[in-house]
Amino acid sequence: MILILVLWSIIFILVSVMLTLSIIINKKMMIDREKSSPFECGFDPQNSSRMPFSMRFFIITLIFLIFDVEIALLLPMNILSINFTVGVSIILFVIILLVGVLYEWKEGALSWIK
């Protein structure tokens, strides 16, 4: 019983020393609210959520989601046995996506400099 008590006290002392050392040698400043916030996107979470947002970020997000869904739809098609119908549907799907990318490129949604 005494051995268990001694072991627990040693563990408690070690944990306390490690926590104290980590607080002392921590490089983060309490003043730096932006780095300590969970979202490092440049918005202050305490302010209003109705701040203006750049449409370029929104469009890039939509383009990413479209091509993410494209991968999710193309992978099962490739796993199936490749026959004429599956091959034509894959080619048609890729052509539609290629036309969409070319349209976005022509409209300037993919360029950051205007």
UniProtKB/TrEMBL annotation:
Primary location group: membrane
Enzyme Commission number(s) of this protein: 7.1.1.2
Mode of membrane association: Multi-pass membrane protein
Transmembrane regions listed in the UniProt entry: 6-25, 57-76, 82-105
EC top class, as a word: translocase
Pfam families: Oxidored_q4 (PF00507)
Subcellular location: Membrane; Mitochondrion membrane
GO molecular function annotations of the record: NADH dehydrogenase (ubiquinone) activity
Catalytic reaction equation(s): a ubiquinone + NADH + 5 H(+)(in) = a ubiquinol + NAD(+) + 4 H(+)(out)
Keywords: Electron transport, Membrane, Mitochondrion, NAD, Respiratory chain, Translocase, Transmembrane, Transmembrane helix, Transport, Ubiquinone
Organism superkingdom: Eukaryota
UniProt cross-references to Gene3D superfamilies, sorted A to Z: NADH:ubiquinone/plastoquinone oxidoreductase, chain 3
GO cellular component, one term: NADH dehydrogenase complex
Keyword presence, Mitochondrion: yes
Coiled-coil regions, chain positions: none
Similarity remark: Belongs to the complex I subunit 3 family.
Function: Core subunit of the mitochondrial membrane respiratory chain NADH dehydrogenase (Complex I) which catalyzes electron transfer from NADH through the respiratory chain, using ubiquinone as an electron acceptor. Essential for the catalytic activity of complex I.
Protein name, as recorded: NADH-ubiquinone oxidoreductase chain 3
Gene it is expressed from: NAD3
